[in-house]
């Protein structure tokens, strides 16, 4: 017996070597590095204990149906799924570069050029999810992972546990969820929310990358002013201000946000037009 925990799926154990390397621990899951025996290639295994879900089983179904649809360079994709009585095991791409959260802690903050690239990639992922009518609802630096350890590693959105596939594009979601600090005010106020909540979170993340701290510290988002640090350029401020607006329907779509002049000013031409 290797350790306490749920019994592993027998077929999974035949195909994969489960390493002791824990990649991360989230709200609902532990994520381990695993290796496909046939090729030796590493993947991530997200282990979700059914008992930690307690009546939130619907959430799990959501995550699975959402993840299995997603194929985009800036989103983590689901490759395989195993289920036992106690747990669900999701095999996904391995994001070897770790969390944006960790890198942000190390760096303190980013230059405008670096922040613009990261936010641009984030928005490409969000644009794609929104095209599939998926609202992530928990975008934050812990749920943004680097594909590899290189300097210009691609950023990938993960953890669709709280997202919902909207049946119609304009559906209003009413449950309170998400993480204080990054979550849009209409979520906290429970007056319904859709795709614009992700745009709000991108605005908060953009601010955080440039300043090193979140604009709304702790509890409820007060929209007094977004006093971005003085050294931050005009275009960056105008970008952030355009996302952190309410009511929600005044926020740009991801597609529209990607056209902001901040990106044109900061990114090399070949990145903006792939
Ligand atoms: P939870 O739903 O419990 O928050 P996450 O999917 O966010 O679970 O995973 C928890 C943590 O595990 C992440 O914050 C990250 O550090 C790590 N992690 C998750 N998926 C991967 C992956 N594909 N590659 C590398 N690390 C990962
Ligand atoms: Mg998470």
TrEMBL record:
Domain Protein kinase, residue spans: 17-263
Superkingdom of the organism of origin: Eukaryota
Keyword annotations: ATP-binding, Kinase, Nucleotide-binding, Serine/threonine-protein kinase, Transferase
Binding site for ATP: 50
Molecular functions per Gene Ontology: ATP binding; protein serine/threonine kinase activity
Assigned protein family: Belongs to the protein kinase superfamily.
Protein name: Protein kinase domain-containing protein
Biological source species: Mortierella polycephala
First and last residues shown, out of full length: 39 to 312 of 430
């Amino acid at each position: 017996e290797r350790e306490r925990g749920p019994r592993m799926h027998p077929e999974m154990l035949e195909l994969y070597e489960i390493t002791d390397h824990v990649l991360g621990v989230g709200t609902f899951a532990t994520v381990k590095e695993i290796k496909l025996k046939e090729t030796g290639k590493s993947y991530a295994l997200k282990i979700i204990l059914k008992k930690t879900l307690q009546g939130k089983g619907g959430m799990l179904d959501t995550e699975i149906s959402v993840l299995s649809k997603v194929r985009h360079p800036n989103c983590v994709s689901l490759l395989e799924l195993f289920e036992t009585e106690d747990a669900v095991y999701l095999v996904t791409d391995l994001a070897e570069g770790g969390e944006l959260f960790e890198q942000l802690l190390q760096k303190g903050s980013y230059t405008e050029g670096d922040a613009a690239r990261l936010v641009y990639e984030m928005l490409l992922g969000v644009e794609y999810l929104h095209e599939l009518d998926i609202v992530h609802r928990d975008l934050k630096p812990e749920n943004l992972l680097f594909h590899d350890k290189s300097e210009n590693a691609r950023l990938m959105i993960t953890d669709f546990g709280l997202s919902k596939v909207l049946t119609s594009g304009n559906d209003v979601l009413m449950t309170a969820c998400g993480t204080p600090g990054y979550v849009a005010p209409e979520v906290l106020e429970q007056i319904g929310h859709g795709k614009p909540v992700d745009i709000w979170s991108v605005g908060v993340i953009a601010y955080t990358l440039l300043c090193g701290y979140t604009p709304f510290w702790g509890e409820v988002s007060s929209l007094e002013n977004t006093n971005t640090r003085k050294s931050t350029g005009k275009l960056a401020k105008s970008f952030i201000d355009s996302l952190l607006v309410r009511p929600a329907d005044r926020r740009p779509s991801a597609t529209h946000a990607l056209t902001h002049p901040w990106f044109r000013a900061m990114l090399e031409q070949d990145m903006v037009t792939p």
